[in-house]
Every structure is written in structure tokens, then in C-alpha cells.
Write a structure and sequence with these properties.
With 150 residues, this protein is mostly helical. The chain has one domain. 85% of the residues lie in helices and 0% in strands. The chain contains six helices and no strands. α2 packs across α6, α3 packs parallel to α6 and α5 packs antiparallel against α6. The mean pLDDT is 87.
Length: 150
């Protein structure tokens, strides 16, 4: 549902709009609303899980540490492989960053729909979002710093 429905909607939108300029106009119209929707969802989740996050810091650490290790580990392996294989930076950088991402947006949607807003799964995905954003920002900075080495 979380993959097929957006895919079909995107395909239908492209088919209906057809022209690339119409698609770009549609994207620029929808983009502000999608950002607001994402921010609202995250705010609601943090509001519902805020007490748990503040009251159980050890639990948050237990969720955070594996996410950080996994993210940096996958990035290191993939970026080193891209470098060793002499993949151009313009291809390697986005591929490695996409591969490193945990797609917590999708995880949040699945956790809420399957287990509810106040579940442990929802808490883990909220913590995942909190962790993934700064981790990905550091990785983007690293990718930009090492561009000349590729």
C-alpha cells in the first residue's frame, strides 16, 4: 500500500499531465504541501511520544546506537566500494546516500498503521527520524568534502 499506491498515483499523474512542463508545474504546486504534511506528521509523533523519549533515555540510546552504527557502516562500505570501482562521484554520491538511508518516513507510516500511534514501533521510528537526519547531513557533508578525490 505504501509503495504501490504512490507509484500508481505517480504514473497516472505523469500520464494525465504528459508534458514535462506541466509535471514541473504540478510538482512546484504540491511541494509546499508535502513539506507541511511531513512536518505536521513528525510534530504529532513527537507530541505523542515526547514523554516516553524524555522519561526513558536508556531506551532511546538502545534504539539510537544500532541505527548510527548501521548507517555509518553501510555508508563506509558502499562509498569505499564506489571509490575502488572508480564510479564517478555524481553517480556514487547519490547511490551511496540512498543506500544508507533507512527510509524512516515509510517505517513511520507502516508502524502507525500496524501498531498504532503510541506503540513501541512508532517510538522506534520517531527515534529513527531524530537520528537519521543529523547522520545523513554529516554524510552529505563528507560526500561533498571528498568530491575531488573521485
Amino acid at each position: 500500500m505504501f509503495i504501490a499506491l504512490p507509484l500508481v498515483a505517480g504514473m497516472l499523474t505523469c500520464k494525465l499531465l504528459g508534458d514535462a512542463t506541466k509535471i514541473e508545474a504540478c510538482q512546484s504546486f504540491v511541494k509546499p504541501y508535502s513539506v507541511v504534511g511531513l512536518i505536521a506528521t513528525v510534530m504529532i509523533l513527537f507530541g505523542l511520544q515526547g514523554q516516553v523519549i524524555v522519561s526513558t533515555p536508556l531506551l532511546i540510546v538502545l534504539i539510537t546506537v544500532p541505527i548510527v552504527i548501521q548507517s555509518y557502516g553501510i555508508f563506509a562500505i558502499a562509498y569505499a566500494a564506489a571509490f575502488a570501482l572508480k564510479v564517478p562521484h555524481r553517480i556514487a554520491a547519490p547511490c551511496v546516500l540512498i543506500g544508507t538511508s533507512n527510509f524512516f518516513e515509510l517505517a513511520v507510516a507502516v508502524a502507525i498503521s500496524l501498531f498504532g500511534l503510541n506503540s513501541g514501533a512508532a517510538l522506534a521510528t520517531v527515534v529513527g527520524v531524530l537520528v537519521e537526519v543529523p547522520v545523513m547531513l554529516t554524510l552529505v557533508a563528507f560526500v561533498n568534502l571528498t568530491r575531488a578525490r573521485f
